[in-house]
Write a structure and sequence with these properties.
By secondary structure, the chain is mainly alpha-helical. The termini are far apart. The longest helix is centred in the C-terminal third of the chain and has 22 residues.
């Protein structure tokens, strides 16, 4: 029975963080497009540096901490509300705010295919990592697995954006994902024991790129 439950949780996690799940993440680059425009990301090596820094010390790390907090608090409406307010406050630019809230709203809309009382405990607008964390927690998905899948989904999208922006090829992109497997595992273990006291980032240049993207005239992505 436990094996069947674990398998069911894994299948749901695979569905929720699949590129086919209709959240629209393909439309966002998280400032990467501006970084390419300004020459900060020029090739596969600098693309790998960019994404690996963000997952370890930037906005993605903060997303991991928020996801973990929501996963633990999925049964507590008041705690979820507080985490949601914090998640919105941490959005450092208009586009970052729009990206994380629109992805969160789209995720919750689609995830209702798996009915659960957690949807009634969440505020009307929820940032993406909190939406993922709360729903996964409610369905009994392991926190470490959720974090690993969440980070892998981010990296897959970022690498795909890099390919579309012409700084890497498809084989290069796969190599980046393969090369960061150990980093993903380490982040999953670190994030699973993290608390809100562990929030913090040191990627000012990436934050500036997100702000500058708002005024970029020609662009492929919404952020």
């Amino acid at each position: 029975m436990t094996e069947n439950t674990d398998l069911q949780a894994l299948l749901r996690l695979m569905a929720w963080l699949s590129p086919a799940f209709p959240v629209g993440s393909f439309a966002y680059s998280g400032g990467l497009e501006r970084a390419v425009e300004d020459g900060l990301v020029r090739d596969v090596a600098s693309l790998r540096d960019w994404v690996s820094t963000l997952i370890a010390r930037g906005t993605v790390w903060n997303d991991i901490v928020l996801l973990a907090a929501a996963h633990r608090a999925y049964a507590d409406a008041e705690a979820l509300g507080s985490v949601c307010e914090l998640g919105e406050a941490l959005a450092g630019s208009r586009e970052r705010y729009q990206e994380t809230t629109l992805l969160g709203d789209a995720f919750l809309t689609s995830a209702r295919a798996w009915p659960d009382p957690v949807f009634d405990r969440l505020p009307r607008s929820v940032v993406y990592p909190i939406a993922v964390g709360a729903v996964a927690g409610a369905h009994g998905v392991s926190l470490e697995q959720v974090i690993a899948a969440f980070v892998h989904a981010y990296l897959s999208q970022a690498v795909s954006a890099g390919i579309r922006l012409g700084v890497a090829g498809q084989k290069d992109g796969v190599a980046v994902l393969a090369g960061l497997e150990a980093d993903i595992a380490a982040l999953a273990a670190r994030g699973a024991v993290a608390s809100l006291d562990d929030l913090g980032s040191a990627t000012i240049q990436a934050d500036i790129m997100s702000l500058r993207h708002e005024t970029q005239q020609t662009r492929l992505f919404r952020s």
